[in-house]
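We give its fold:
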Amino acid sequence: MKKATIQDVAKRSGVSITTVSRVINKNYPVKESTRIKVEKAIEYLNFKPNLLAKGLIQNYTKTIGILTPSIENLFFSEVIKGIDSVIRPLGYTTFLCHTEGCDKSEIEMLNSLIDRQVDGIIMIDPRKENILSGKLEKISSTTPLVLINGYSDGIKCNYVINDAVSGVNEALNYLFNNNCRDIALLRGGKSYSYDIKEVVYNNFISDKNLNKRVLKIDDGNDLNAVNSSKQLVLEALKSNNKPRAILCCNDWMAIGALNAAKDAGVPVPDKLRIIGFDNTIISQISSPALSTVDQQMTKLGQLAAQRIYRIMSNEDNENQKIYLETKLVLRES
């Protein structure tokens, strides 16, 4: 079926294309009787204005691009939910791009969003390589850009950042103060968020003169992370040097560790304490319920959305780093 055009509306209502445009955009006065005729023609023809063309004329498209390395890890979906809760009521539509944590895909999707003339872009956990290359700084000089987490030292971009350092320290101190000395860190592969957690862990272990033990799976952001974590933790629990506690870099990995403990017959938390990171819904419905570090994911997304809107509105163009506190949530593990 052929889509109705503005020419069709003009013909049916017996007015010029310019008059139809004025009725649609409400930018010039039009006689009431003429406006009613045009609106009836629009309704009859089910005419939908070309919002992109309209936006290009007015120098905006009312669209926001969001780049995420994962759609399976509930951390990212909660952040996106927070972004949408702010952006949608303001009349914006979002384009969601899934990069799968690939630096090349990230740049390709960034360029595609820019070609589509989005009004702004929010990147969640951007690749460190693209940050250090200067590519994101260059983009931010011409396109409103907000980064959620990621490497930020000396980088001239707008950031909203979880205070992961204090979150890791709080979790480790809790374990240490509860007589845990053999503490392992369970992390995923290539990700700055995992890197920074390991740096904090290494510093803590060194300060307390404890033995370091880092367990590493390939990818911590997909569903395979649960099984990969389970297998790795099972091996550790069957060894002669069993950990007394495991700090996991996200809740998916922590669920895998819980499953491993069940299979190995190791009671949690009596013989093994497990702490996750994120406070996603799975931490509340697992058995036992998972202790975890709350990263306030929805609020993280909301702060990023509020920041990008201020930049797009030219209310505040200075680069800022906004930090969001984390909090250890103690449950049953």
